[in-house]
Amino acid sequence: MDTLPRGRDGEWLDLVADLISSPLTVWPEDRVSRLLVDTFDAGGCVTHSHSDSDGLTFTTFHPVEHFIPYLDEAVHWTRHEAPLRHPLLRYHLSTGLGTCLQIEDVPSGIADRRMVNDWRARGRRWGGVQAQASIPVLWEPGGRRSFVIGRTDVYTAQEMALMRRLQRLLAGLDRQIGVFSSWSARTGPDAFDTAEAVRLTPRELAVLELLARSLTAAAIARKLGVAERTVHKHLQRVYTKLGAADRMGAVFRAQSIGLLPGVRPRNVRTSRPCRPEPSPQHAGRPTTTILRSDRADHDRYHHPDR
Questions:
Q1: Is the separation of the CB atoms in 90 and 117 below 8 Å?
Q2: Which residue segments constitute the domains of the chain, with CATH numbers given?
Q3: Do residues 244 and 235 make contact, with C-beta atoms less than 8 angstroms apart?
Q4: HEC string of 13-24?
Q5: H or E segment and range at residue 154
Q6: Which residues of 137-166 are buried (b: 16+ CB within 10 A; e: fewer)?
Q7: Residue-wise pLDDT tens digits, 176-218
Q8: Is the distance from CB of 180 to CB of 202 less than 8 angstroms?
Q9: How far, in Å, are 75, 101, 300, 301 from residue 304 at the CA level?
């Protein structure tokens, strides 16, 4: 990633490689937010996650110590006013697009100069986060998730290009977490032991889960945001580790040992479980605040002009 500041390319590659290989069922927001703040010399990062199925919105602030003096006001404003008055959120909700964008580039037809200036005044009061850019990693019917980075200065064209590259990496990670979480919920905790016993990685388990849904290699590639040839490599490793010759054999074998629901699993020798654990260096450190909205706020997010 040649446009990254010196040293940051290795940090991002190491982080994404580590997260892809980890059995994650929830987003590692703290680790990603921390590196986004450092990479773009930002004052803070806010993560917004929304589920259409239950109408709930969760918002986390990082680092929380930056927002503590303004936290009550920020939480109230984010919940009750942001869908109508925040330029970036108004853009995303009005257009339905998950575009990587900064406030400076929001069309005036969506956020006029008065709205932008009102936000800038508020952002300055909240510790200098008035120049904001959003990195949506999930923006589709059913749910939304975005990282919003704030600082005092407008982002350069090179920085926005870098954000778009990071967006592709983080969107792929989001898709894997979603599929792996679905696999974990369908199979139960014992499947982690079995997966470790046959040495299937989280990415290979995600591919196996999609294979069991009868998706083609091309469809799996689109779902995970990777190249089709990458999926074929994962499939070959899955076949080898399960001792199968083809996709049907892999699915039947996975069902028989409890890696997929379907039939009663046979006994499989297992080693220690590979369940996700919190990172030791972050354990017990409060770095985020969670905001939960209700159904009324869900309607405001869907229909900002009402």
A1: no
A2: 8-170+283-302 (3.30.450), 190-274 (1.10.10.10)
A3: no
A4: HHHHHHHHCCCC
A5: none
A6: bbbeeeebbbbbbbbeeebeeebbebbeeb
A7: 999 999 999 988 888 999 999 999 999 999 999 999 999 999 9
A8: yes
A9: 18, 19, 5, 6
